[in-house]
UniProtKB/TrEMBL annotation:
The gene is ackA. Signal peptide: none annotated. Its cofactor is Mg(2+); Mn(2+). Mg(2+) binds at residues 9, 375. Its EC number is 2.7.2.1. HAMAP family: Acetate_kinase (MF_00020). This is Acetate kinase. It comes from Billgrantia bachuensis. Catalyzes the formation of acetyl phosphate from acetate and ATP. Can also catalyze the reverse reaction. Homodimer. Keywords: ATP-binding, Cytoplasm, Kinase, Magnesium, Metal-binding, Nucleotide-binding, Transferase. It comes from the Bacteria. Pathway: Metabolic intermediate biosynthesis; acetyl-CoA biosynthesis; acetyl-CoA from acetate: step 1/2. Substrate binds at residue 84.
């Protein structure tokens, strides 16, 4: 029986998609429509035989791109569409079956994620037009972190800012942290472990997970808070915004642009936001590359140490994301900065853990895991669960 879910992750000029079958051993159809709205818009991905393809889309918008994606599904009809929605505010603590009320609620939350939610909504509207007969489910990056207690999600600001304007810490990368922590529970045969998770890619965040629930995380109201990232600064002195405005005459738009797009690994190194290129440059003695990697790793370790306060005990540490899965050097440096945690790294195994491999890299003691994230698979799982829950509600 076909029980595939079409997972859609819609950006302002891109659509990432995956047709996720219910059986894990079945192949996925996946790809990316990019540069939408421009003359060189294109669709690239892999077919059911694992063969890569590239298709010119010639100025396509989101609807035309989704029509091309539909053709690439090779006649396989999904049972539902699962959408990645970045920000669900406080309303959404789990995946939601999409209707007009849910769409309106996502629109109201767009002020908290102006770079993401409007694009997510555009893709949602397009798929509702193309698949009017299919159930559509919204899976929120923020939902996994709605289990944070007030001491973790509240800022020390006047009550009215929270009460009237929903200013609080929300956290992101929830599908990734949920997937890898639950996968570690299964692999380690722990029933609800106590994990520190590090999602390290161009965007980075850490999380403290206890018995399948997020207790604290590094990102806050926006994805800018927390770790050093590819082009994002992460934490800075809150007074820096006012200082740059007063001393340099920068507008808020310029400050936002610099902190989000010109900082992080790119800003520190003056070279690139690509960790592979930075490691190569460091090996050639580039001081900017060395500084960027050292700050990056130190801030990860500092965050993990702080988040350990949220856990009643610590079973282990999980690395995921493009950098977390592939950079043995970053993993070793981060672990080396946490000597008081009793972590013992197996350097040989760690050096071999690249390119999608999964496994333990510790030499005993607390567990150290590398677990490739599967956000599409997690979204598909949550979509199926929400559909099952909806059927149960209808039956009762």
């Amino acid at each position: 029986m076909n029980a595939s879910v079409l997972v859609i992750n819609c950006g302002s000029s891109s659509i990432k998609y995956a047709l996720v079958p219910s059986e894990p051993d079945q192949p996925r159809l996946a790809g990316l429509a990019e540069r939408l709205g421009s003359a060189d818009a294109r669709l690239k991905g892999v077919d059911s035989l694992g063969k890569p393809f590239t298709q010119a889309l010639g100025g396509a918008d989101h609807t035309r791109a989704l029509e091309a994606i539909l053709h690439r599904l090779e006649g396989r009809r999904p049972i539902a569409v699962g959408h990645r929605i970045v920000h669900g505010g406080e309303r959404f603590t789990q995946a939601a079956l999409i209707d007009d009320d849910v769409v309106e609620a996502i629109e109201r939350t767009s002020a908290l994620a102006p770079l993401h939610n409007p694009a997510n909504l555009e893709g949602l509207a397009a798929t509702r037009r193309l698949f009017p007969e299919l159930p559509q489910v919204a899976v929120f990056d923020t939902a996994f972190h709605q289990s944070l207690p007030p001491r973790a999600y509240r800022y020390a600001l006047p009550e009215a800012l929270y009460r009237d304007h929903a200013i609080r810490r929300y956290g992101f990368h929830g599908t990734s942290h949920a997937y890898v922590s639950r996968r570690a529970d299964a692999l380690s045969e722990l029933e609800g472990g106590a994990w520190l998770t590090a999602h390290l890619g161009n965007g980075c965040s850490t999380c403290a997970v206890w018995q399948g629930r997020s207790l604290d995380t590094s990102m806050g109201l926006t994805p800018l808070e927390g770790l050093v990232m590819g082009t994002r600064s992460g934490d800075v002195d809150p007074g820096l915004h006012a200082h740059l405005s007063r001393q340099l005459g920068w507008s808020l738009d310029r400050i936002d642009e610099v902190f989000n797009r010109n900082s992080g690994l790119l800003g520190l190194s003056g070279l690139t936001n690509d960790m592979r290129e930075l490691e190569a440059a460091e090996s050639q003695g580039h001081p900017g590359a060395t500084l960027a990697i050292e700050v990056f790793c130190y801030r990860i370790a500092k965050s993990l140490a702080a988040l350990s306060c949220a856990l009643p005990r610590l079973d282990g540490l999980i690395f995921t994301g493009g950098i977390g899965e592939n950079s043995a050097q970053v993993r070793e440096r981060v672990i080396g900065l946490l000597p008081h945690f009793g972590l013992q790294l197996n350097r040989t195994v760690n050096s071999e853990m690249i390119r999608g491999r999964e496994g333990r890299i510790d030499a005993g003691g607390r567990q150290l895991w590398v677990i490739p994230t599967d956000e599409e698979g997690q979204i598909a799982t949550e979509t199926r669960q929400r559909l099952a829950q909806s059927r149960e509600e209808t039956d009762t």
